[in-house]
């Protein structure tokens, strides 16, 4: 079983570095950025500090991926910084791989929070033997219109603020994909429309299973596969895979092809369980097709026994859970329970 260092918690008064490790889009929506900074300070008592290059704009950051990696290293080595927060995702964090220093991550274990293209950095932490946190970015749920959602707050508090103890994951009481123009500051106080929660779906499996969490955004994992950023085989052994799709809305067939790749690598054969995020932008028919592909590929791999819970509230959905990657999680299909042991 792999071992991962658990970074210190982030109590009120912590200073958290805001990092642009992918897109530099934030400079186009600075009102949204400041709203996130204010809401994080009001709810958690964290002071958000921009990294040296974080607000230099999309052109500079696109042309200088090493500057983005430098910001990560600056935050790790700076004794006045206690945590690391992704501002927003994008599509090219894979370009940071030549400069990411895993020794620095392990020497200075600090909580890193992000999702989507931050999958590259999340997995870098796991490769360094340090837990990382798959959860909201500064410009997404942390700058949510009308204030932070209580479901988001609960998820962050129990993984990053409160004293560690086991907790159960539950479906969100409501959710939304509603688009709101982040550049329109007049909308910041207007709450987006939410729809009632539709619960999770347990697709297969009868026996309880437990393993460490690993995963991220499938499209980004596809970019990482075959690169030095891909986790070594032992990191997949006995893991519970947490997989999500982005606003690119890959077809169910494409998701099936990616899962076949994991089967061919032996990842599915060694897995303990599977968490599938609510797929963003899918029609009900597409969701049914997606889950059919998941079952099909698992059957091909001889894993009809694998516990699978789908439509889970993480990734490209709001509000979203914060998942401590590297922590142990137990899936109990008969009791319909997911328990995290941080």
UniProtKB/TrEMBL annotation:
Q: Specify the species.
A: Deinococcus aerophilus
Q: Is Amino-acid biosynthesis among this UniProt entry's keywords?
A: no
* LD-carboxypeptidase N-terminal domain ranges (all copies): 16-135
* Entry protein name: LD-carboxypeptidase
Which SUPFAM superfamilies does the entry link to? Class I glutamine amidotransferase-like (SSF52317), LD-carboxypeptidase A C-terminal domain-like (SSF141986)
The UniProt similarity line reads: Belongs to the peptidase S66 family.
* Alphabetical UniProt keywords: Hydrolase
Specify the domain of life of the species encoding this protein: Bacteria
Q: Does the keyword Hydrolase apply?
A: yes
Q: Where is the LD-carboxypeptidase C-terminal domain?
A: 210-331
CDD domains noted in UniProt: Peptidase_S66_mccF_like
Q: Which Pfam families match?
A: Peptidase_S66 (PF02016), Peptidase_S66C (PF17676)
